[in-house]
Specification:
This protein is mainly β. It folds into three domains: 100 residues, Cathepsin D, subunit A, domain 1, CATH 2.40.70; 160 residues, Cathepsin D, subunit A, domain 1 (Beta Barrel), CATH 2.40.70.10; 78 residues, PDZ domain (Pdz3 Domain). Helices cover 6% and strands 48% of the residues. It is built from five helices and 31 strands. A hairpin with a 2-residue loop joins strand 28 and strand 29. The longest helix has 8 residues. It is globular and about 60 Å long. The two termini are 41 Å apart. The relative contact order is 0.13.
Length: 393
């Protein structure tokens, strides 16, 4: 999306009511208009963060132009979202963008289609189901049902949160007896505007909304400390994240407060979680020399029956560097001896620089019983560890 003529990368986050920019470098010479200092707060255990509120900005996505847009800019140097994603992300866009359009999110084909509401035609296919959305503070909610092991089913109101990579989050509530079942383990869930988010990761018997029912989904129970801000809306019980939503082709019709859903090929896939206990972060790039290639300037000298060829052209590429950001206590990685700030060198013999961060995270969610051979660099010395992926739930 272009902001005042500068092209930036954003996450489309239905859980966000505001457009927020939080990563800029020296090359991003963005000018923001009509600014004032404010504080922003979100899920997380930290304090509110300082931000700049800017009004009367111009945005552009494709041929969609927005004028008089309000944008918040976070200037906390410790808030580093890009390193957790593995690519440069400058900010998040949500309601301010979605409110005027019908937006189709096609996870299978990695496409987003944006239409003017008056041009939208209701899908005729019977494979789609239509559900009503409710909104609070410009965020969309669905009604659902959760069944905990050994308990009865109860109703929940859940935020649709495409910025959340988990399946489900739910707020613990002792008054309503919404408590985390056993077994569980405390896990790092991600970063919010107000700091790191942790929760008790477990599985529940089922979660359902509309006609769709999910058996044994993974879920994270969040305590009142991390969710104090979110609990201001007392009816909210938690969030539906992308491990649920990416099982559908989604049509969000914000003007008419409606969502259309159609199952895709991922609908019945198993719910998984990180079984190594390793949380990786993107630590930048390194320049790697590949094999030399024939050069137009090559010189060949033949004398005394010997041929000497001088190849002077080489291919250099920037490759990603990944380091360990967190290690879950008592996890396979912790037991093996891996440490925070270890630089990942290889996984099962393949150099880490050849992977996308998403690919590595998929490997870490691998089959129970699988062994991984992980090499790391620590203070210039290379160490090799063998981990076995275990089922903790």
């Amino acid at each position: 999306m272009e902001v005042n003529g500068i092209e930036l990368n954003f996450v489309l986050d239905t859980g966000a009511s505001k457009t927020v920019i939080f990563t800029l470098n020296e090359r991003d010479s963005l000018v923001l208009n009509n600014t004032q200092n404010v504080e922003l707060r979100g899920i997380g255990t930290g304090e509110p963060i300082q931000a700049i509120l800017s009004e009367k900005n111009n945005t552009k996505i494709g041929n969609i132009i927005g004028v008089n847009q309000t944008i918040y800019m976070v200037y906390d140097e410790h808030f580093d979202f890009s390193s957790k994603v593995g690519m440069t992300i400058h900010g998040i866009i949500g309601y301010e963008f979605l409110k005027n359009f019908v937006t189709t999110i096609d996870y299978t084909n990695k496409l987003i289609l944006v239409e003017i509401s008056s041009h939208f035609k209701t899908p005729k296919s019977k494979k789609y189901s239509r559900l009503d959305l409710t909104f609070h503070q410009n965020k969309p909610y669905l009604d659902g049902k959760i069944k905990l092991p050994g308990s009865s089913e109860f109703d929940v109101k859940m935020l649709i949160d495409t910025g959340n990579s988990d399946a489900l989050w739910i707020f613990e509530d002792h008054k309503k007896n919404v408590l985390c079942p056993t077994p569980f383990f405390v896990d790092y869930l991600g970063e919010g505007l107000s700091g790191s988010i942790e929760g008790k990761r477990t599985k529940i018997q089922s979660f359902q909304f509309g006609e769709y029912k999910f058996e044994n989904p993974t879920i994270a129970f969040l305590d009142s400390t991390a969710t104090a801000y979110a609990r201001v809306f007392e009816e909210r019980n938690g969030s539906i994240g992308n491990q649920i939503m990416n099982r559908f082709k989604i049509i969000l019709d914000y003007p008419n407060k409606t969502i259309f859903l159609k199952k895709n090929k991922s609908f019945s896939k198993e719910f998984r979680y990180n079984r190594t206990g390793i949380e990786l972060s993107y630590f930048g790039k390194t320049l790697v020399q590949n094999k030399a290639i024939p050069s137009d300037n090559s010189y060949t000298n033949q004398s005394n029956g010997h041929v000497i060829a001088f190849m002077i052209d080489y291919v250099y590429e920037f490759k990603p560097l990944y380091g360990i950001y967190k290690i879950r206590k008592d996890s396979p990685a912790d037991v093996a001896g891996l440490k925070v700030n270890d630089m990942l060198y290889s996984i099962d013999g393949k150099l880490a620089q050849e992977f996308e961060l998403e690919e590595i995270n998929h490997i870490f969610q691998g089959d129970i019983g699988r062994y991984l051979t992980i090499q790391v660099d620590r203070n210039g010395i290379r160490y090799t560890y063998k981990l076995q992926l275990k089922d903790l739930l």
